[in-house]
Please model this.
Amino acid sequence: MALPEINDSNFTTEISNGMVLVDCWAEWCGPCRMVSPVLEELSGEMKEVLQIKKLNVDDNQDTAQKLGIQSLPTLLLFKEGQLVDKIIGALPKAQIRNFIERHK
Model:
């Protein structure tokens, strides 16, 4: 199951409702490709409390710049449109799950 892609034009709308984890990634990023299947699993397991969406930083540089993305992958956690936390790097599934559950 592929995660939905968001972009510069719909970013604000896409993060405005509920809890949303945004995976900031790029095609050339090896660790991004490693974390993607983990996020797809978590998306299915946590769909009741969380939406997970992907932002390609190469294709959406305005948003990436506004968010101050400097390392990939960066996972940004939003609640009702407000950034509440972020983690950087291709972390194991349990660590990403704990990161999310701290904010439920």
Notes: The radius of gyration is 12 Å. The helical segments are 11-14, 30-45, 61-67, 93-101. The chain has one domain: 10-102.
